[in-house]
Design a protein that fits this description.
The chain is 20% helix and 21% strand. The protein contains one helix and four strands; from the N terminus they run H-E-E-E-E. It has a four-stranded antiparallel β-sheet, with no helix packed on it.
Length: 94
């Protein structure tokens, strides 16, 4: 009887370990096929609204968590597609 109880507790603890060992995050590789401006990103930042901004040699890209918005010389007022650095001015909260 003791062996059955010990085996039962071992199975329960093993089940909890499997449940608790599941990954908390899922990583997905985003490419041009998903809407990214280029597969080669040279700079990346996140603004206060939560948007992810990415700079590349093909233009600027904004990611809202689901969709990409691309900015380049053909659809915006930027002068060149090659963005090597993103500048972000953080205003301190008062």
């Amino acid at each position: 009887m003791k062996q059955v109880i010990i085996l039962f507790f071992c199975l329960i603890l093993g089940g909890y370990q499997l449940i608790l060992s599941q990954p908390l995050y899922t990583f997905k590789r985003l490419t041009v096929a998903d809407g990214l401006v280029s597969n080669y990103i040279v700079d990346i930042i996140q603004d206060k609204q939560g948007y992810i901004w990415m700079a590349s040699e093909s233009g600027l890209c904004k990611f809202d968590g689901k969709n990409f918005t691309t900015y380049n010389t053909s659809n915006s007022n930027i002068k060149g597609n090659a963005h090597n650095v993103l500048y972000y001015n953080e205003i301190p909260m008062r």
